[in-house]
Amino acid sequence: GAGVSQSPSNKVTEKGKDVELRCDPISGHTALYWYRQSLGQGLEFLIYFQGNSAPDKSGLPSDRFSAERTGGSVSTLTIQRTQQEDSAVYLCASSTPLAGGTGELFFGEGSRLTVL
Amino acid sequence: TQLLEQSPQFLSIQEGENLTVYCNSSSVFSSLQWYRQEPGEGPVLLVTVVTGGEVKKLKRLTFQFGDARKDSSLHITAAQPGDTGLYLCARYGQNFVFGPGTRLSVLP
Questions:
Q1: Is A4 part of the contact surface with chain B (CB cutoff 8 Å)?
Q2: Least CA distance to B49: which residue of chain A?
Q3: What does the DSSP 8-state code read for residue B30?
Q4: Does A22 contact chain B (CB < 8 Å)?
Q5: B28 Cβ contact partners less than 8 Å away, ≥ 6 residues apart
Q6: Nearest residue in chain A measured CA to CA from B30
Q7: Alpha carbon A4 to chain centroid distance?
Q8: In this structure, what are the phi and psi dihedrals at residue B4, rounded to the nearest 5 degrees?
Q9: CB contact under 8 A, A105 and B43
Q10: Could you please report the per-residue DSSP string of A37-74?
Q11: Which of B30, B88, B98 minimizes the C-alpha distance to A35?
């Protein structure tokens, strides 16, 4: 597809279970971002991948959260031992970075996670 | 941390009214972007502003970047129900950071 694809679109899980969220970015985009959006709130930065550089993990809220990006393309966000406060929409975005940060972020539709 | 503030947090107006929403920070931006997010979708870029004092127009939307590049405003003329959504500003530092957004509701 032409856009950023995320799966699953909806995930309901029980507290304590692990979940994996997948992001397939736009082909050729070297930058990939994960954000978390709680109900009615703004976007909380989680992690940023840029090419072959070490990812910026500064936004991950705890060591239960991790992400990887294989082959510079698909990314997986893993949440271990989920808690109810992890319930949110997880958004992935990709871009081709331009000088001065003027590159456009293209977002997927998000994965809505509900932890019971 | 270069935090972004947005105001108002919520805005509900009647169709045809004008409105302005604001984004500001204590730090200088190299550039600033405005995105709009509709329910169930990801944010979509509206505009990027780079130069202090810059004004950009997109149909009924007018974006202004402050002279000191620490603030920006978005003005909508004759708002329509289709303008309803969450308006987010974002700046690029080491990565893209978003403000908390202004949730706009335009009632028919």
A1: yes
A2: A102
A3: S
A4: no
A5: B68, B69, B70
A6: A100
A7: 11
A8: -110, 135
A9: yes
A10: E-TT--PEEEEEEETTSPPB-TT--STTEEEEEGGGS-
A11: B98
- Residue type at A72? G
Looking up tokens 């975005």 gives A93
Question: Shortest CA distance to B92 belongs to which of A42, A98, A59, A61?
Answer: A98
Say what the pLDDT of residue B77 is: 97
Give B2's pLDDT tier (boundaries 50, 70, 90). Answer: low
Q: Does A107 touch chain B (CB under 8 A)?
A: yes
One-letter amino acid at A39 equals: L
Match 């397939």 to its residue by tokens: A24
3 state SS of B4? coil
Distance CA A52, CA B44 (A): 26
Task: Determine which of A102, A106, A112 to mutate to test the interface with B (most B C-beta atoms within 10 Å).
Answer: A102
Chosen for mutation from B92, B103, B105 (greatest number of chain A CBs closer than 10 Å) is B92
Q: pLDDT tens digit string along B31-72?
A: 899 999 998 899 999 999 888 899 999 999 999 999 998 999
Determine the length of chain A.
116
